[in-house]
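@channel anyone free to eyeball this complex?
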Amino acid sequence: MDYCCTPLFEGVLDDRSAAEMAPVLAALADPVRLRIISMLAASETGRACGCDLEGPLGLAQPTVSHHMKVLREAGLVEGIKQGRWVHYRVIPERLAEIRDALAPTRALAQSFNG
Amino acid sequence: MDYCCTPLFEGVLDDRSAAEMAPVLAALADPVRLRIISMLAASETGRACGCDLEGPLGLAQPTVSHHMKVLREAGLVEGIKQGRWVHYRVIPERLAEIRDALAPTRALAQSFNG
DNA sequence: TTAATAGATCGACGGACTTCGATATATAGA
DNA sequence: TCTATATATCGAAGTCCGTCGATCTATTAA
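replying in thread with the prediction:
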């Protein structure tokens, strides 16, 4: 018969790293926020202000503001206040960080540093 | 004074692609599931059965089973039934798919095919 | 100063998620 | 067949999340 393997799990993502990584992925795990990031990245200048997003997204202003806050707190987006407006831009290094952490060869790299 | 830019947002991630992509990221956006994937990838054989995970994770059996279902339904993990046990393994192609979709140069690639 | 506008915050509602005990199903061994 | 074990399913409790109307703050223009 078969026996159940008992792997040792060395070099596994520890609790703390997992707890740091999950919220960043959670910030990305929303259709609206994915579209926002895509819109910022697709914009010619790499930036856009909230007022330009509400229309295309079809969402109320407080909702967009909420999503921007989530993205900001995850370090995925930066807001530059310019007069009455806030221009948002994606922080590509942060996106790359997550991509690298998902590299399967590294078993969800221990190298993630929230 | 400054004017607010009005970007055209061409080539932006459409609603459907975003709706397909988000649940896969949501499946990854949990500390326990990140650790599970890491454990599977770190295992010598690249596999492990549920019974080997409960202990290290410190979670009850139904909880682990629930997380495996989420990962399975997201296409991130595959379960191979062997006798009484189910051996799980990561599907690295799926992980790569998500990594590619997060490539900033592609503005959250339209190429994601959930 | 007053009016208008961009953005943030608050509170509430509905829905989804994580967790676990209890239970059901399937397989292996005696 | 009967017992033991691995896994799945169900139901419940508590928590978290997305959304929006109402409201507040900050800045600009008149």
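from a first look: The beta strands of chain A are 47-49, 77-82, 85-90.
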